[in-house]
Amino acid sequence: MSADFVDWPSIAADDFPFPQAVPRARPADELSVMLLSPDPAIRDDCAYTAAARWIGEGHLDDVLEALGDTAANRFIHPEIQARTFASLILCCVLTRGHTAPGLLPKQAAERWYAEFSAWYPVEQDTRGWDDSLGWLHAVAHGADSAAAFAKALPDRRTELLDLCARRMTAAQSDYRYAQLEDARLARALLLRAWPSPWFHDFCRWEAIDNCHR
């Protein structure tokens, strides 16, 4: 593989191994662009799949804070897929930071929380699925991010409960809760407000993917 570009078709065909032959900033930069795409095959099937795996495996630790900053800045992006997938990426970034203490400064999580909390309760496009754009899921993706923020910023848990409640009761949208969005919100609320061991076991039994769809 050339060091001048990322060969995405080959990476996807090989089940997304990390491209060791390129500088780590390059796949991160290219992923950030692809995550804006209105084409779900590019944004979701390729870019998000790669980003979630590589963030979780630690391959992007050197650029993790930059990835979080880019995602948080997209909550004011004019296109819905950019906003909702920003929330997914923040969830992955925060989860990686939680599993590797000291990797992310608390100030970064606070920056991202400010942007997230301004966006989540007032997002008006809450469609789960669009025939052209694919999965969007503002409500569900935001719920997953809220749960990740509660781990990263435990002092914000009460605020996060209020944030999720405001999202659940928002009246400005004609579309809600056709794709298990309410279940994802309830899961985020209960994991933070009622973190008992049996409930964590229950959530593992549930067929609800915490980081996608």
Strand count? 2
State the helicity in percent bands.
55-70%
Our estimate of the beta-strand percent is under 5%
What is the terminal separation in angstroms?
Answer: 32 Å
Helix/strand structural class: mainly alpha
Overall mean pLDDT stands at 87
CA-atom Rg in angstroms: 17 Å
Q: Uncertain spans, ≥5 residues at pLDDT below 50?
A: 204-213
Biggest sheet: strands side by side, in what order?
1-2
Instruction: Count up the helices.
Output: 10
- Indicate the overall shape: globular
Largest sheet composition: 2 strands, antiparallel
Oligomerization status of the protein chains: single chain
- Compressed to H and E, one letter per element, the order equals HHHHHHEEHHHH
Summarize the structure.
With 213 residues, the chain is mainly alpha-helical. The protein is 60% helix and 2% strand.
Would you mind describing this structure in some detail?
There is one protein chain. The chain has ten helices and two strands; from the N terminus they run ααααααββαααα. The protein has 213 residues and is mainly alpha-helical. It has a two-stranded antiparallel ribbon. The protein starts with 7 loop residues before the first helix and ends in an 8-residue tail after the last helix.
How would you summarize the topology of this molecule?
Blueprint (H helix, E strand, L loop, with lengths): L7 H6 L11 H10 L5 H18 L6 H10 L6 H20 L6 H14 L9 E2 L3 E2 L2 H15 L4 H13 L11 H13 L3 H9 L8
Antiparallel strand pairs: 1-2
Helix pairs in contact: 2-3, 3-5, 4-5, 4-6, 5-7, 7-8, 7-9, 8-9
